[in-house]
Amino acid sequence: MYYPWWYVPGLTAPMLIAIIAVVHVFVSHYAVGGGILIALENQFAIKTHDKSYRDYWYQHARFFVLLTVAFGAITGVGIWWTIALASPLATEMLIRTFVFGWAIEWVFFIVEIVAAFLMYYFWMRLPEKTHILIAWIYALAAWISLVLITGITAFMLDSRGLFAHWNETGNFWHAFFNIQFLPQTVIRTGAAILLAALYVFLHASWTFRNVGTAKTNNSNNSANNNSTNRELFDKIVRRMSRPLIFGIVTVLLGVVWWFVLLSPDVLLVMERSVLLNILLVLFFGLCGLITLLVILGPIMNPRSINVGFAVCLFIFGLAALGSAEFIREAVRKPWIVDQVVLGNQIYANEVAERQKTGFLRESHWQQLPTEKIQYGGMVFMYHCNNCHATDHGLSAVGPLLYGESKEKIAATIKNLNRPTLSMPPWSGTDEELDALAEFLLTIRPVENP
Q1: Mean pLDDT throughout 414-429?
Q2: CA nearest 120: which of 39, 50, 47, 198?
Q3: 220 with 332: CB under 8 angstroms?
Q4: Rounded CA gap, 189 and 172, in Å?
Q5: What gap in Å lies between CA 193 and CA 243, rounded to an integer?
Q6: Among 144, 135, 75, 74, which residue's Cα sits nearest to residue 107?
């Protein structure tokens, strides 16, 4: 093999990637949608000469910059670190194909970071028109970054091109403008607006958590301040209801468009998976629940909003988007990059050759073991480890083999991709198959006497 394997006990490397990536998605989408809302609401506050409303957005900008620039950058680096270790071949392939796109994205990312700091640290020092311009520069740069990354992640799901197939041309633009690019851009744009509005609800409800608690024996000034804060909070709640609804509608329209363009193989994988169907129902159910709560709460009765309501709404939003992310990633199996790199870390056009010459390769950093079970264990780490734990953990293979004979295990491995559709084809020799079966017997649960 050309790259070493990386085994994460119990959790598995793909799940570690998923955890870091989903956390990053929750923050990075806020970085996009939050920038748009800050620019829009800051512009509205200036236009209506509402100083208190603009002051609130200055407070929110501090929370926004700390979360998106600091924490968001850390999780972004975490994604690169984990994918390079867990899927080095796919990472190399994507870098080679999209190096131009990533270079463009890095330029806009630098613009985004500089604009974010200028927007926050010079909030009260710049002329209002200049400040609004910087806010919109940030929002546009952040959204373009989202669009560029979406082109790459969409290609990983479906490599078919809108204009020509990348497999036939090798052209960057044919890869970037893949068939899933537009619907996923719509989904992520809507998700960014939706998440940003939920973050504002959360931040505003905590900032004004003591609104409405003034007692009759308080001073007049305290009562007046409480009344002013109440009005300001109501205004924030009412205005954030619109981007919330817009985000939900946009996400749902994008998801429907995404479904229409799915390939027959992907649809079949989804239809055969009970878990994916449950998550799909959960996604649509949560979107409906959020819409209902927004109508009954912020729209019809903004004064009913409190920290508990905002937290629940925020959790429902994260759960809905997290379910959608899980579905989007799961339907990609058995591919890491659709029709290009398989889950066992080889190119699709290498399968026939590996079945003849062998799956494992000698390299300057490793020698192939001579002992059969150790050899089979190495085959497992390269061929199976990218999705499965061994005897304990997520998608552990051991418990699946209870009561199975070596012959049955070997027959199943030789036809990996036929019954499940979501597993890559067996890509080794009969000798490697026999060694892998011997290793799997050692992690198979012992039958009760």
Answers
A1: 88
A2: 39
A3: no
A4: 23
A5: 6
A6: 144
| pLDDT at residue number 217 | 46
- What does the pLDDT read at residue 14? 83
Q: What are the counts of helices (DSSP H) followed by strands (DSSP E) for the chain?
A: 17, 2
Distance between CA 322 and CA 221 in Å, rounded?
Answer: 45
For the chain, give the longest Cα–Cα distance: 88
Residue 421 near residue 264, CB atoms below 8 Å: no
Task: Identify the helix (H) or strand (E) that includes residue 199.
Answer: helix 181-207
* Residue 255: other Cβ atoms inside 10 A: 22
- Asked if 121 and 292 touch (Cβ cutoff 8 Å), the reply is no
Could you give the CA distance from residue 425 to residue 352 in angstroms, rounded to a whole number?
10
Contact between 81 and 26 under an 8 Å Cβ cutoff? The reply is no
For residue 317, give the nearest of 206, 243, 258 by alpha carbon.
243
Q: What is the pLDDT of residues 26-81, one digit of tens each?
A: 999 999 999 999 999 999 999 999 999 999 999 999 999 999 988 888 888 889 89
* Cα dihedral 195, 200, 206, 209 in deg (nearest 10): -130
Q: Which residues contact 113 (CB under 8 A, 6 or more apart)?
A: 69
- Amino acid type, 175: A
Show me where the domains of the chain are located: 13-342, 348-443
pLDDT of residue 216: 41
**Average pLDDT, integer, range 243-265:** 94
- Closest residue by Cα to residue 391 from 448, 447, 445: 445
Positive or negative: CA dihedral 319, 321, 325, 330: positive
Note the CATH architecture for domain 348-443: Orthogonal Bundle (1.10)
The reported pLDDT for the residue numbered 73 is 83
Beta bridge partners of residue 10, listed in sequence order: 393
**Number of other CB atoms surrounding residue 434 within 10 Å:** 18
Q: Is the pLDDT of residue 94 over 90?
A: yes
- Residue linked to tokens 């633009």: 173
Per the DSSP assignment, residues forming a β-bridge with 393 are: 10
From the number of C-beta atoms within 10 Å of its C-beta (0-12, 13-18, 19+), residue 216 rates as exposed
Q: Which of 442, 44, 66 is nearest to 239 (CA)?
A: 44
- 271 burial type by CB count under 10 A (0-12 exposed, 13-18 middle, 19+ buried): exposed
Whether residue 18 has pLDDT greater than 90: no
Q: Which two tokens stand for residue 83?
A: 């994918």
Distance between CA atoms of residues 189 and 254, nearest Å: 9
